[in-house]
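CORE FACILITY INTAKE
Project code: CF-77B
Contact: R.S. (postdoc)
Sample description: multi-component assembly, two entities in total
Requested service: structural model of the whole complex
Turnaround: standard
Below are the sequence entries exactly as provided by the requester. Do not edit them.
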Amino acid sequence: MRFLDLANRNFKETYRDPLALGFLLAFPLLFMLIMGVVVGGETTPNFPIGVIDNDHTQVSQAFVDEALAEVPALEVSTYDDAATALKDLKFGDLKAYIVIPDGFGQQVTQNWQGDEANITLQMTYDESDIMISDQVISIINTVTRAFAQIEIPITINANPIHVETEITYIDFMGPGIIVFGILILIPTSARIMVRDKEKGFLARLLTTPTKPVEFILGYSLCLVVIAIAQIIIFMVGAWLLGMDIVGSMWLAFLIFFLTGLCSIGIGMVVASLTKSENQAEPLCWLFAMPLAVLSGCWFSLEIVPSYIRNVAYAFPYAHAIDASRGVLIRGVGLEALGTDLLFLVGWAVVIFAIGVILFRRSMRS
Amino acid sequence: MTSNRTESTKASDDLAIQTFNLTKIFDGLIAVDNIDLNVRRGELFALLGPNGAGKTTAINMLCCLLKPTAGMATIMGYDINQHPFKVKEIIGVSPQETVISEHLNCWENLALVGRIHGIKARELKIRSQQLLETMGLAERAKDQVRKFSGGMKRRLNIMMALIHNPEVLFLDEPTLGLDPQARRAIWEYIARLKGEKTILLTTHYMDEADFLANRIGIMDKGKIVALGTSTELKISVLEKHTMIIYAWNLTQRVINEMRSKYDEVEVTNGTMIITDKHLDFKEIVDLLHASGAVVRSAYIKEPTLDDVFLHITGKELRE
């Protein structure tokens, strides 16, 4: 099998090159470590938030008293009207306040019963501190989803609600950092492929009976192995830095793996469009940087305008972060990830197909 | 195997490489211009010419890397356009740039090409060992090749073209950029392959073509402008001979005598250069002796391939 020989060669060329290996493994780890030191640590944040319950149902009551109150990161006070809460927010006594709208309880109940529901919360928050408001939004989101997405409809009191009790910053940022690391596979993949084109290795082996598809398989296999190694290192690294893994590790791995395939595909496209590493490198970052910004790995996409959010969700990385946060922080299962996973699979298949077609074409000329 | 070989070449089974009006045009630039070439089996044929003459383009077409704009070629009877994969199975190519995997050792580099050609592990090991020994790399076989000198890398570059025992070998500038000692070593190895394999070599070093090739095709601006053995080519330009004499006590009388006998006689600082269509070495030396001159050395200058190139194209073949 020629592609196995090629993959073996590509792999050796990479792991025997200390610089390349360093870039592949140490750089993301170092990055993660810095993030961990900066944002991690033992301190659990404590955010004062206000709640105005306009629903006045048993359900909304339970949401406030049990779900929200159980989160140590939140210090919940109830208000009778929004005006008072707004005043406290402006004075800095609150980081945010939530209005539970009329009908909330009914919608949540509908969701519990398996019917379609539209659960909304109105939230007003202090914009000046993006990092904190990000976390508050995330926490409220997490709590609300956990609260509303219970699958078996039984009374609230008899059913303990799972709320991750310590959502630290690393829990929130971990998946984003991992996805950012996987984004760096774009330049890595492009570099490995374009280097051989630049140095004439492809041309040399094209004078042997090797077929173009065998080259592509040889590169893909090598890069998939690299992707798997990176993901394992990232996950272990994030875990060592204190990221809790609530849900299935394997499911999270699957999400990251599909994301990795998308990165490899984009890298292949870049390698097809360029002739040298010097051309490929800037083109890669031209792709990777906007993708990183739009992935939501630095800040929550819930604070950006909706049209930007639409653009962000046209690419796989935002889906990957949503899905992996769901699994790692909230412990959601496969059934709740349907659309995100399907999107990732679809993206991986399409970008890979484009990459293969373009790379074959670039080899012919 | 013969079933795929084209009709036209069955008549000339002793030819390993044949081209018919082979032409390559890049965006209006004619890189290779209507080349007709016949290389016999077991022959070492050198394409000699300056950089940009079209040698590499010609080789790349024969290796099925480039599609000809016009014309055709066969390698051991296989048409390069119709059966590129048949051609690729029987050729070995050592490209102009040293293309090796820097983080692999010799064994691994050789094994990669060998396996691609489907050579069995045992045969691969034997052939690798043989090549490593004849090319003098056996002791460094397990070192990553990025630590190698330029000459060692070039040798490995050639070995990788030989590992699968190809019928036809293409060597594109095999000693490019090497010091004289390293070049010698490679020449000696190529000379050993002579007769065993059909070799098409390109070079812009005239001494390389002179030393190695059975026949030489001189290329300029995409065309083969002269073709023959080294001697044939040199004789073709031999219209006048030049004799160079270093002597003491050259008298004006003997100089005048020489001038009356030969077309051109130049004398500077004890050196006499005589040029004419016919030169009698013995007569000249005897005349000088008789005049009382002391001849320290005298020789008739052989034309070089550079002279051939200069004669045909009107410019020098720069090294």
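Facility notes:
- Chain B has two domains: 2-235, 240-302.
- Residues 73 and 79 of chain B are 6 Å apart (CA to CA).
Invoice: internal transfer
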